[in-house]
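Box S2. Input/output pair 1.
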Amino acid sequence: MQVYLVGGAVRDRLLGLPVRERDWVVVGARPEELQAQGYLPVGRDFPVFLHPQTREEYALARLERKVAPGYRGFTTQFSPDVTLEEDLRRRDLTINAMAESISGETISTESLSTGTLIDPYGGQRDLQARQLRHVSEAFVEDPVRILRVARFAARFADLGFRVADETRELMKRMVASGEAAALVPERVWQETDRALATARPEVFFEVLRDCGALAVIFPEIDALFGVPQPPKWHPEIDTGVHVMMVLRCAAKLSLSPAVRFAALMHDLGKAGTPSDRWPSHHGHEELGVPLIGALADRLRVPNEYRELAVLTSRHHGVVHRAAELRPATVVELLEKTDAFRRPERFNELLLACEADARGRAGFEDREYPQANYLRRAREAAAAVVLDEGERAELKGPAIGERIRRKRLAAVATIKMGP
């Protein structure tokens, strides 16, 4: 029996990045041998065990074979005869197909230090070259790997990583053969959510577009490319380019994947503008709402993401015009967005709107005083209370009307500023 540290922990250590979790492969062992050492079996499709002290995952070396289209069409073979090289060969990228050995025939908490690097497929070379390269032609057997490559491209974009030419071509062939259409919605969203949490989430969608998968998986986003906008407000002109810039800006403004998703969704309605009305897009805010709903239904997007995206699509134009709004319109905006009961979500809406305003060529460093103005307006309106005398003399709807008038007066005192 031999134990190896594998995958992301090896990769990140070689890149000098923090190692957040460790995965292990056990070669030359049977399930009953690990159970005899106190390991807890947790794998349903193939044997995976939790270490009795560290709770880290230990998987028996295995082979996989595709038997049907789609993510779930695999059979798994494990036995003591499967070698480490065979186990590593089934992985997606060379940088994820490296291992490090540990000493000893048995597994214990004292033997969790790493040792000799084992790199049969050139992962260390590709780390140095900043290349995302597939391990073997077995890559085509799992279309989720298209999403994983795009996610790793987003995660490591600031380190200079790019998808290797041969892997780009392989991904294009997979999309052309219909593999991307077979992706399970839950896995699409799982990888997308992870990509939204990276430092450069826009790269995820750019890689998918490059190989043709964006049109299959996210047709609502793909349709934005080639749709022009007024150059005065959008020097980048192309709506798809603008949305990628907005997503990048959102990633700088907020760590929240929900904010980033809202930024990505905010202009979907522009794809529905008839071409004879270009570059104007009157009414695109409301046009985007059913498109967000359709995408969210299809991919099982969490409600908190969907709700924030709908609010952003519907209200971002009003937020941008905050300096022009009458106090009554400001209070109406606060009411429609449920800002009094959900101030945290309202702040997320403002962050997504700020990303939209600054996600334009030449606008990246511009101030966005609208956000602070609306935050202060909400605070002032939310602080309104009725004294005992007012409550004693009012009943029913009159109470709400008095509160509203006082909120209007409070908002009227707030001035636009930094």
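Box S3. Input/output pair 2.
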Amino acid sequence: MFTRALIVLLIVANVGVAAWWLLRTPDTAPVAVQLPAGTPRLRLPAEVPPARRPAAIAAPASALASRCLAFGPFADAPALARARAALQPRVVRLQPRSGDAAPRGWRVWIAPLPDRAAAQALAQRIAAAGFADYYVVVDGTEANGIALGRYGGEAAAREHARALQAAGFTAAQAEPLPGPGVQWLDVAAVADFDVAAARAASGAREARPLPCAELH
């Protein structure tokens, strides 16, 4: 009798649970929160794609420079190499640059004539006019030209050329004698760069201010 009653009770309990499950009210779906327009959504670091994560920005070395100078002139390769070794550890950037030297002096001359006979004839006329400083160039690219003197400065050379021209030798001309090529070292440095110490270490005669835009 007791066993039959227990079986009936279990059947009734199972029927009651099944009825509750079928007749229960479904869970309410979560309501999305509406944010103001333009408000970025909070995202965890793990949700950000690698390409979107901010990276550290490294400033270029040239941005650290606040002054630029030209050291020189250096007359030969060994002098340039010594100066470069002395300046390199002291500056942010360094680059060599070729420059023209000042003239070695001035000369007065007449460009080559068609042949030696014409050059000799003109030289004799120059001598007859009272000009003693002359000679006919006998070889090289200026053969059959007439040299009429060398001068340390432009003024004296031009004055002598004018005197020859006034005497009828209109082809006489004054021009500078080119000096040897020289080298400079253009550098970019920080604000507290010791110019005097760097110039002494490099052996440069000059340290000229230079627009930083000229360093490429």
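Caption for Box S3: The chain is about 30% helix and 20% strand. The CA atoms of residues 125 and 131 lie 9 Å apart.
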